[in-house]
């Protein structure tokens, strides 16, 4: 009986030792349902044996952990224990130029990481602990496919070692060292998002005695590089929990990738993990279908024809949209030069003027200078008059600049206020206050029903005189209008006269000697030179209209 009891105890000890050894070393050449604990978007695909951590779902993450916890420090001494692992993964973006945030091999205190979020936090951290401010007890090796400035990422294709935060203690762009064929070594970059066409194999070695963690990466099937890609010292006895789960995490953000684990070998307690037989690993969806499924596929002619037709339609539609955009940009294209910087606040976009004038349809005047349109500014609701100076007009760019310089700074109740201006493809556009009663010449030489009374004429003359007095004496410089005539006197709703059209104006300093101008009568030359055209003009001696002269006689 004693011998039987001793034998039973020995068998129990052997079974316990076998369980302990099994817990410290395992190999997954593909995965069976239930072999790993999955959470979030992760799942084991029974048909293929793949561990898929995420699919093409945005803002999602998934975990796949070995179901039993492990101890990474010696129970007696507290010293960290060595471990070794290798695995094959693939990251397949939904679109070539937009992908998720990568995959990580992780040591975590639980299968369900509390508070973890997707996106740049890789399903392992959140906003409160991602910078290492907390004690998450998570150590990870990240294959990161996004560049997040918050974590000082090297680029959008790097490998990093994270200790209780996503600001890696060591990281470098993804790549590997290999034989250059001439007895030396060569470093090549490697894309982490190669998908099914380029799965990756990763080796991670941790030496408990030196606390050195080394990570090596290469294309799956290539010889293991002799030189690790990234390494650093990590004291696991402080960085992880007593019971720690080992496995994988992956996450998507605004863009999505499918993250796969094809095979995994792990060993805790010294020595290297068993090599993976890549020929026995499951195939990724992009590797193709089985021969039987190919035999059942329908002929490709019709689908290919439809595809070509769709592509042609899309190209034609794109060309039409591009032509429309170019045409619209040309329609509203504007010009701007250095001298206009000073008058920037007065500038208005051509599109706003186009909308205000209903496409320049409401014409209220035309002449040698161009055309004038009525408009309503969409933002303020103010009524305006928009003068479009034609290319062949007597008012060219020089006169236009003069009017900008003069009227943008003049303020008087008897001067028509210049509100805005615009230049577009050679056209010059000026925006004024709208004068509902038009110009003086329309009332003087127009229909008899619009004839002005003598009281109104006197009011207009006084207004023009007040405006001229301001121009000559009231402003910081002397402004000589040089084109006073009834067509340039506009009338507001109360029949107040206001001077407009400063296209020929000139500025002089007070006390200067402006050039004289010869005034012409209808029947010949005036027998003397006038010191200023507009000094006599407000009295009515500019005879090309004759009206102002009549008004002066009335006074």
How far is it from the N-terminal to the C-terminal residue, by CA? 146 Å
CATH topology group of the largest domain: Jelly Rolls
> How is the main sheet built?
8 strands, antiparallel
Annotation, overall tally of beta strands? 28
Plain-language structure description:
Strands 1, 3, 4, 6, 13, 14, 15 and 17 form an 8-stranded antiparallel beta sheet that branches. The chain has a 7-stranded antiparallel beta sheet with strand order 2-5-16-7-8-9-10, with no helix packed on it. A 5-stranded antiparallel beta sheet has the order 18-19-20-22-21, with helices on both faces. The chain has 3 domains: 25-277, Sandwich (Jelly Rolls); 320-434, Phosphorylase Kinase, domain 1, CATH 3.30.200.20; 437-555, Transferase(Phosphotransferase) domain 1 (Transferase(Phosphotransferase), domain 1). By secondary structure, it is α+β, with helices and mostly antiparallel strands. Helix content is 22%, strand content 27%. The chain is elongated and about 115 Å long.
List keywords for this structure.
555 residues; alpha+beta; Jelly Rolls; Phosphorylase Kinase, domain 1; Transferase(Phosphotransferase), domain 1; 3 domains; 8-stranded antiparallel beta sheet; 7-stranded antiparallel beta sheet; elongated; disordered N terminus; carbohydrate binding; serine/threonine-protein kinase; nucleotide-binding; signal; non-specific serine/threonine protein kinase
């Amino acid at each position: 009986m004693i011998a039987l009891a001793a034998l039973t105890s020995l068998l129990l000890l052997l079974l316990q030792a076998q369980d302990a050894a099994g817990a410290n070393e395992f190999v997954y050449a593909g995965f069976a349902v239930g072999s790993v604990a999955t959470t979030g978007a992760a799942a084991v695909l029974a048909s293929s044996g793949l561990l898929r951590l995420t699919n093409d779902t945005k803002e999602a993450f998934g975990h796949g952990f070995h179901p039993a916890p492990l101890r990474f420090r010696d129970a007696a001494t507290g010293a960290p224990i060595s471990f070794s692992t290798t695995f094959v993964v693939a990251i397949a973006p939904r679109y070539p130029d937009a992908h998720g945030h990568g995959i990580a091999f992780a040591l975590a205190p639980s299968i369900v990481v509390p508070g973890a979020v997707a996106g740049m936090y890789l399903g392992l951290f959140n906003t409160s602990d991602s910078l290492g401010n907390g004690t998450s007890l998570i150590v990870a090796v990240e294959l990161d496919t996004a560049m997040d400035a918050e974590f000082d990422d090297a680029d959008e294709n790097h490998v990093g070692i994270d200790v209780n935060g996503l600001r890696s203690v060591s990281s470098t762009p993804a790549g590997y060292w290999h034989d250059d064929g001439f007895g030396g070594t060569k470093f090549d970059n490697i894309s982490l998002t190669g998908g099914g066409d380029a799965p990756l194999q990763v080796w991670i070695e941790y030496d408990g005695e030196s606390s050195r963690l080394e990570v090596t990466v290469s294309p799956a099937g290539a010889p293991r590089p002799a030189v690790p890609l990234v390494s650093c010292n990590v004291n696991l006895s402080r960085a992880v929990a007593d019971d720690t789960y080992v496995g994988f995490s992956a996450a998507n953000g605004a863009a999505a990738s499918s993250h796969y684990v094809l095979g995994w070998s792990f060993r805790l307690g010294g020595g290297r993990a068993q090599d993976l037989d890549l020929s026995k690993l499951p195939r990724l969806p992009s590797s193709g279908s089985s021969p039987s499924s190919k035999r059942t596929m329908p002929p490709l002619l019709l689908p290919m024809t439809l595809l070509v037709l769709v592509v042609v339609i899309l190209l034609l539609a794109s060309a039409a949209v591009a032509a429309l955009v170019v045409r619209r940009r040309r329609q509203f294209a504007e010009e701007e030069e250095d001298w206009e910087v000073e008058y920037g606040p007065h500038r208005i976009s051509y599109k706003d003027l186009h909308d205000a004038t209903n496409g320049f349809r409401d014409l209220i005047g035309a002449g040698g200078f161009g055309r004038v349109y009525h408009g309503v500014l969409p933002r303020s609701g103010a009524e305006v008059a928009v003068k479009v100076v034609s290319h062949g007009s007597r008012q060219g760019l020089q006169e236009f600049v003069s009017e900008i310089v003069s009227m943008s700074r003049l303020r008087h109740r008897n001067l028509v206020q210049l509100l805005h201006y615009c230049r577009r493809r050679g056209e010059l556009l000026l925006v004024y206050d709208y004068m509902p009663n038009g110009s003086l010449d329309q009332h003087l030489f127009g229909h008899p029903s619009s004839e002005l009374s003598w009281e109104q004429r006197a009011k207009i003359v006084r207004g023009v005189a007040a405006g001229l007095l301001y121009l000559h004496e009231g402003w910081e410089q002397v402004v000589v209008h040089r084109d006073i005539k009834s067509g340039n006197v506009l009338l507001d709703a109360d029949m107040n006269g206001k001077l407009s059209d400063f296209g020929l104006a000139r500025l002089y300093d007070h006390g200067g000697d402006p050039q004289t101008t010869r005034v012409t009568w209808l029947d010949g030359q005036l027998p003397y030179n006038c010191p200023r055209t507009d000094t006599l003009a407000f009295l009515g001696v500019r005879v090309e209209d004759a009206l102002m002269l009549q008004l002066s006689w009335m006074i």
